[in-house]
Design a protein that fits this description.
about 350 residues, mainly alpha, globular
Length: about 350
């Protein structure tokens, strides 16, 4: 008997398709901006930029979690909201809030890297290449991301003073971070291709290779998710130990053995709940112990959407989405190009 909550799989797929479409549009706009920086806009002569630069889409700042962490530290120290990458900081804070409320909902519904790695592992399973590691190996695989997270937190919160971080946020390196995101991929070197190839190959062979092993962002969200009141509960009396939940879990958690699936590796994707064939065996609940209240499965993705949508609306209406600093930088760069354009070679 198939699971009665299969609509959750379709709901998650719609979420992910919408996020991928939005990011694809943002990356396309960033590509146009990168071409403008290099004087290679379509239809333009070499080294001659078009009449006006295309804007850098704020959404691409989601790929700058390191800058967002530094911006959060500066903001917490009372030095103001990051004026260079405000969208990145907004998305980062929304992801943190999401984890406290709805587990690692950002990883389950919004992260494009996790979506790609999950798809690669599905391919590995179809080709009979993917292997689920034992518990000891799984634990060892999980260690690097926590080490990377510890180093990042030590550097940002201990090693560097907030005032120095604030100066760095306004420096040229950070200002150019968003516009330079595509440069390594347009002219890739071995330093990029080798680790990228290892991550892609590892994702085919091992479930959750990147997310479980090397993503410090996911490690931080997982630790915060330990405080989330939402979790999937298993009724031992109704469980037939078919292990369908465990086999389809992206993190390969032993769901069929747990009473409350609440570890830091649980992304809150609800795949286990969707495919469970026994009515009432796996349920989404809020709270702890006997007082935990049963909720419909769609509550978790709805809560994630409300958190991210609310953060976006707040940022747009309060002026914390579009960067005034980058807009001014682009304007000055455009004026500089216009001034020296006659001297450029044809």
């Amino acid at each position: 008997m198939p699971g009665r909550s299969l609509y959750l799989l379709r709901l998650r797929a719609w979420f992910q398709v919408a996020v991928i479409a939005a990011l694809a549009g943002a990356v396309g706009r960033l590509y146009a901006y990168t071409l403008w920086l290099w004087g290679q806009a379509p239809g333009a002569a070499a080294a001659v930029p078009p009449a006006a630069p295309p804007p850098v889409p704020p959404l691409v700042e989601a790929f700058l979690p390191g800058q967002a962490l530094a911006g959060a530290r500066v903001w917490l120290a009372g030095h103001g909201f990051d004026p260079v990458h405000p969208a990145g900081l907004t998305i980062f804070l929304a992801a943190l809030a999401m984890s406290l409320l709805a587990r690692r909902g950002f990883c389950a519904f919004f992260c494009p890297v996790g979506y790609l790695c999950e798809g690669l592992n599905r391919l590995g399973r179809r080709l009979s290449l993917s292997r689920r590691p034992g518990r000891l190996v799984s634990t060892l695989i999980s260690l690097p991301k926590y080490l990377l997270l510890a180093l990042l937190l030590w550097f940002v919160f201990v090693q560097v003073a907030p005032a120095d971080l604030a100066v760095w946020l306004l420096g040229p390196a950070n200002k150019g971070a968003a516009s330079d995101l595509l440069r390594p991929f347009l002219a890739p070197s071995a330093n990029l291709l080798i680790p990228l190839g290892l991550i892609l190959a590892g994702s085919v062979l091992v479930p959750g290779f990147w997310c479980r092993g090397f993503c410090p962002y996911g490690a931080l969200l997982g630790l915060l998710a330990l405080f989330s009141p939402l979790a999937v509960w298993r009724d031992r009396k109704k469980c037939t130990y078919c292990r369908r939940c465990t086999r389809l879990c992206p993190a390969r958690l032993p769901v069929h053995e747990a009473r409350r699936v609440s570890g830091p590796e649980c992304r809150g994707c609800l795949k286990c709940l969707a495919v469970c064939p026994e009515p009432g065996c796996l349920t989404l609940r809020a709270g702890y112990g006997a007082g935990a209240r049963r909720l419909p499965g769609w509550v978790l993705p709805l809560l994630c959407a409300l958190v991210m949508g609310g953060a976006y609306l707040w940022a747009v209406n309060s002026g914390h989405w579009e960067s005034p600093v980058l807009a001014e930088e682009n304007r000055l760069r455009h004026l500089l190009y216009q001034q020296f354009q006659p001297a450029l070679p044809p």
